[in-house]
Design goal:
homodimer; about 35% helix; alpha/beta; elongated; eight-stranded mixed beta sheet; Aminopeptidase
């Protein structure tokens, strides 16, 4: 009988709990030189990773680090310190002017009692969308019209919409396996819905929170107005509150609600991209970039979005330094400012890159949460980079990483695509991300240190392979 | 410029947040008939899965459902109800006598003040191991000797160990990517350590909790004594407390501690395997089994271990019923009793299977937590079943499932291996499992509904493929 079956039977006879039934230390396979480097990277990250400790510091010291905030300024200082502690060849900041929007006093959405009845209104759990204009101080009060899409709004037209509060209530589709796909599919309601509502004469817009979880946590996020159309105040309801409002509208179609938003926009504020690098031994002017974004929404600790990406990017440099990996090309960590509501950081960086004449071989970002990494998406103007990278799949599979897909990189690295860089994004497990995304619950306890560190090791491994073998 | 690049640029120009940069609805690929079935299974599970609601019921109604407990009896009743609600061909119970051990009043481990000093002792966070004998009422008080392995204990020998409390303090190795491997590698300290301590004349044994998290949560689990050696009381310290004790021993090597355990063993108690099945249309006497275990540790809500496996197994039958999939072979869900401290349920089931002459084509269990599924392990006496199953890998990859490895199935299905069945186990992500395993924190909030439902869909898909195509 083969030895593995023998061990199974022995395990069974001894009543060994399931996890013990695995042979504890199977003989170590002989590793190739490149397998050894990846093993060293993952072992260092899992056994001695510093990203989680850095994340604790960042989200404790600088929650709510939206563009223009003091918290973002503190985050610039603390991440610069983290980079300086690594003994890099260069740590510096790039000045960037960023938009400055503030939420102001807490917003409210109140369901008014039906006309002729007594009693007060019922508060619906809500949060103003980022960039929303303020309502008048006393709020906007009007009837509500529920729609499932911007197209439906267009079909209804100005006649039925004017003077009303539009309520976009199409849930994210749970049948998408990738929750990012479900977000992309439903996200137009938040991103463009209020602008469309204004176009048809609505007085305010509410959107169902972009979450697959049914709960009381409202999700903010950017909404963008059309420059040539009226702007209306906009807020997101929690998924519970959205269901509550929808049910109330069935019972009482002409229900009225009051929306109060007290936000304010200020002149652009100074901010910074924070940058650290290890100079390449052979090609110092050819860059491999790894990055995340430093800002978060004002209501969010920003642990997954995108504290995780920042500390993973810093960890990549630490792994190179600690393991004595001397890159041929310059490895540069860029912590972009203002991804959430302006992308001024990435625009400014791309401008600088264009002017400096430095070539970016690869620009990879991590902005999809600090979960177990599953793969990378890669895009290039020079043919299918994801297919070329897939040759490394056998090297990554022992670490649970197997998916190399064609993709758009990410918001902060995409401007480098037209400059000839291959852009890429780390793809972690997506199931839990939108439970926390852009909310007050995106906190440290939602991040597992091992999953975070595996992501950093995945990034360092890809970068080491591109540095040594090209892509 | 290729259209995907064009969309990238448009997305960038519009300052679209990263997740929006993905095309929302790429053209749906044409699916093969088998791809359509898997798509239907996963869609039903993600959009209408009932496993999470069942899990809420199970862990709310029956936490701490250890063999011999009232809670386990309640779990038998409630899971039988869940199966009955599905309109199956048969739902029944198999009588099984199970061991009955109770923890009794709360255990304690107290660090005594050094001789000659004043002040009270310091409590160390601890939990008695399952099956531990009781200490005398006043506890066992002795000096502590710290070791890193059973081998080290053997090297020290009776002379240095007799009369002492042995403290096994080898941490789980964080560099294993699979935390199950790390558990298997460190687990002998809990499983066999106290027996070894007794053999060398120790008066009690403490083990470091089997966890990769540094926290105050102690982990219980089975310890097994040798029948021909003295038995000693045994408890696990939280990882924090283990570090605390280790540091104290460096400062004061002859420190003494008191261990109090108040457990009691009772005569065997009646219990049940709970079974439901859909009769096969062509081969009703050939079984495809899916199962988990109904019992949990007494201190644990048992959400991941193994409420998740029970409700996933039930969900497999629901998916077949709801989607109108009429299996050729009988699909049987078995919820085994007493996996944690006796495996009497699986032994009794295997005995019955052997006597009945029913052939088990495949017996797959799910007992590694309700996390995102990544693959299956498969074992067979008829050559490499995992390699044969790997032909389905392209069907599973869209759902994040890619790993088909040689493996031992699991504790409850392994006895069926020698009867000619292929045994298998669902392999979910392992990073978070041992943070909660065998603790009071293994609660509903640690389970993500989508991850749980993806696991159920993975099981149903494997079973449908084996039913229709053989393995």
């Amino acid at each position: 009988m083969p030895s593995h079956l023998r061990s199974l039977l022995i395990a069974t006879v001894l009543l060994v709990p399931s996890a013990f039934a695995q042979p504890a230390r199977p003989p170590e396979p002989v590793l190739t030189p490149e397998e050894k480097v990846l093993r060293a990277i993952f072992t260092e990250a899992l056994a001695h990773g510093q990203a989680y400790d850095n994340l604790r510091l960042l989200v404790t010291d600088s929650p709510g680090r939206l563009a223009g905030s003091k918290a973002l300024e503190r985050a610039v200082v603390s991440t610069e310190k983290m980079l300086n502690a690594l003994g890099l060849d260069r740590v510096y900041k790039q000045d960037v002017m960023v938009p400055h929007w503030e939420r102001g006093p807490k917003e409210s959405v109140t369901l008014l009692p039906p006309a002729g009845t007594k009693g007060g209104g019922i508060g619906l759990t809500a949060v103003a969308l980022g960039g929303s204009i303020a309502s008048p101080k006393e709020g906007v009060t009007a009837e509500v019209i529920e729609v499932k899409s911007i197209d439906e709004l267009a079909t209804l037209g100005r006649e039925k919409v004017a003077g009303k509060i539009v309520f976009f209530n199409r849930p994210m589709d749970p049948s998408f396996v990738s929750t990012g796909r479900a977000y992309g599919d439903a996200g137009d309601q938040r991103f463009r819905g209020p602008a469309a509502a204004g176009k048809y004469g609505a007085v305010a817009a509410l959107t169902r929170s972009l979450s697959l979880s049914l709960d009381d946590v409202p999700h903010t996020g950017l909404t963008v107005y059309a420059s040539d159309q009226p702007k209306v105040p906009a807020a997101a309801l929690s998924t519970h509150a959205a269901n509550q409002l929808s049910a109330a509208l069935i019972a009482t179609p002409r229900l009225r609600i009051t929306v109060k938003v007290h936000s304010q926009s200020f002149p652009d504020a100074p901010s910074h991209n924070v940058i650290g690098e290890i100079r390449g031994t052979e090609f110092p002017d050819e860059i491999i970039l790894v990055g995340g974004h430093l800002d978060s929404w004002d209501i969010a600790p920003g642990a997954h979005d995108n504290g995780a990406g920042c500390v993973q990017s810093i960890e990549v440099l630490r792994l190179f330094r600690t393991l004595g990996l001397k890159p041929r090309h310059t490895i540069r960590c860029v912590l972009f400012t203002n991804e959430e509501n302006g992308t001024r950081g990435s625009t400014a960086y791309a401008d600088l890159a264009s002017k400096s004449g430095q070539k970016h071989l690869l620009a990879v970002e991590t902005d999809n949460g600090g979960f177990q990494p599953r793969g990378f998406n890669l895009g290039s103007t020079q043919g299918p980079a994801h297919e070329r990278a897939a040759r490394w799949r056998p090297l990554f599979e022992p670490y649970g990483i197997y998916a190399f897909s064609k993709g758009p990189g990410g918001t902060d690295v995409n401007p480098l695509l037209v400059q000839g860089s291959t852009v890429a994004g780390l793809t972690p497990d997506s199931q839990r991300y939108f439970d926390y995304h852009h909310t007050s619950t995106d906190s440290l306890d939602k991040v597992n240190p091992r999953e975070l560190h595996l992501g950093a090791a995945a990034l360092a491994s890809l970068i080491w392979l591109v540095d040594t073998q090209g892509l």
